[in-house]
Write a structure and sequence with these properties.
It contains 13 helices and 23 strands. The protein is of the alpha+beta class and 446 residues long. The strands form five sheets. An eight-stranded antiparallel beta sheet has the order 2-1-14-13-12-11-10-9, with helices on both faces. An eight-stranded antiparallel beta barrel has the order 15-16-17-19-20-21-22-23. A two-stranded antiparallel sheet has the order 3-6.
């Protein structure tokens, strides 16, 4: 390819008005780090290669790794009921309460409504107190029956860690993952990040416009740390990926057993519209026989992506301080995999659906943090969303999106910053589906 990484990032930063970006690439045993833009539109401090960004849900792979260190030591069993470790656990569904396991939580197959972001303060009891609230959360689908993205599952896994070890989740992560893996710039708390170069998140002033503003809330509530609370650098993410690709070793230290590192990269379940498969923490994609493992992250004004190709010893980490930085992440990842490895991510083939097939999935769908209106439009669908921020309660109406069919009930977003995301419909006994699955989350037909 004639384009350079600098040119690709510059183009994407202009297109999506992303304030700041760092990219790290691990190739042939060497790490190359890059930085562009500013940490904040207000201070205009330059982004450095070691600037900290929130990595959001990439934290879930760290959580899964921490759990697997306990598996290695025989302290937990992925397939034992979680009530073995948390006997006071109460869930809305009795069957889930008695049978849910760590494997369910780490593979998004618990069926529990997953976006519970109530703030229980900064005390050491924050996570345990939040778990008490899980009894109020709806069981969307039967335990183990389907895949749906679930933050709550990872927070529940974090609570098991705390109970088994008798220490706070963050301390356990530092002692068992950060320090053994040599991740010296990975943190959970703002007071830790503030002594380093740290990026500030940015959101759009108008969801239909391009102007960004500094995001008013920096950290997630402490109780959400297992699912999404880590603040880190691209260099630390590359080190973390290298450990997993090297069979759980860092130098001459075996911090995670080779068996556990391998199990995390093996298919545990299909991953609906998100990826080809789901491992333990990792999403898994297959491209021409090559396995890609990774995870993305989204917090208030930040978007992140980590992807590794284990058979090639290759990894790329991309961190942005923009709420629509995922569009840049996707473009840079696609370019880098093609340029560096000759791996071209596929574009799904479109299919033609009848007006009756399209009309069958159209309608209104609802969940606690989003309202969807789906209508038929020019051989495809139009998706209109009213989102409700879990942090502020603010109602946000982004521009409508075009959905083009790639299956009878699976569609591809082809417009805006969300282009490339898949949306599908499933369930129900009659002609109409019960659920839309968008961004991995379920919403039910009105």
């Amino acid at each position: 390819m004639s384009e350079s990484l600098d040119a690709v990032v510059a183009e994407q930063m202009r297109r999506w008005t992303v304030p700041g970006v760092t990219v790290g690439v691990l190739k042939d045993g060497k790490r190359n780090l890059h930085a562009w833009g500013v940490t904040s539109l207000e201070t205009e401090q330059p982004v450095r290669e070691d600037t900290l960004f929130q990595i959001g849900s990439i934290s879930k792979v760290f959580c899964a790794t921490l759990v697997m260190t306990l598996v290695d030591e025989g302290k937990v069993d992925l397939d034992a009921p979680i009530s073995t470790y948390l006997p006071d656990l109460r869930l809305a569904d009795e069957a889930a309460q008695s049978d849910i396991t760590l494997r369910h939580t780490l593979t998004h197959t618990s069926g529990i409504y997953g976006d519970f972001f109530d703030d229980f303060g900064m005390g050491d009891d924050a996570l345990a107190r939040s778990v008490e609230g899980f009894a109020t959360l709806r069981q969307w689908t039967p335990l183990g029956s389907s895949w749906a993205y679930c933050n709550v599952g990872f927070n529940l896994a974090g609570a098991v860690v705390e109970k088994v070890l008798g220490q706070g989740y963050e301390q356990a992560m530092r002692e068992r993952v950060f320090e053994p893996a040599g991740l010296g710039h990975s943190f959970f708390f703002a007071h830790e990040a503030i002594v380093h170069s740290a990026a500030i998140g940015h959101t759009l002033v108008d969801p239909a416009g391009d102007e960004h503003q500094v995001a008013s809330k920096y950290p997630l509530p402490r109780c959400v740390n297992p699912a999404g609370g880590i603040i880190s650098t691209v260099d630390d993410l590359l080190g973390f990926a290298a450990m997993h690709m090297n069979g759980g070793t860092v130098g001459d230290r075996q911090m995670l057993s080779a068996a556990s590192a391998a199990a995390m990269q093996e298919k545990q379940t299909s991953a609906a519209n998100w990826a080809d498969e789901w491992g333990i923490g990792w999403d898994i994609r297959w491209v021409g026989g090559e396995k890609l493992i990774g995870h993305g992250g989204s917090t208030n004004g930040f978007q992140a992506r980590l992807t590794a190709v284990p058979n090639r010893g290759y990894a790329i980490a991309i961190l942005t301080n923009s709420g629509r930085g995922a569009a840049l992440n996707n473009a840079v990842e696609r370019w880098a995999l093609s340029n560096d490895l000759g791996i071209d991510l596929p574009n799904p083939e479109r299919v033609t659906l009848s007006s009756e097939q399209l009309a069958a999935v159209a309608g209104s769908y609802r969940q606690p943090q989003a309202e969807y209106t789906v209508s038929v439009e020019d051989g495809g669908l139009r998706l209109e969303v009213v989102g409700i921020s879990p942090l502020s309660g603010q109602r946000i109406t982004p521009p409508a999106e075009r959905l083009e069919p790639v299956g009878e009930r699976e569609f591809l977003v082809t417009t805006g910053a969300g282009a490339g995301r898949r949306v599908d419909f499933f369930g129900g006994d009659g002609d109409h589906p019960r659920f839309i699955r968008n961004g991995g989350r379920l919403a039910e037909r009105d």
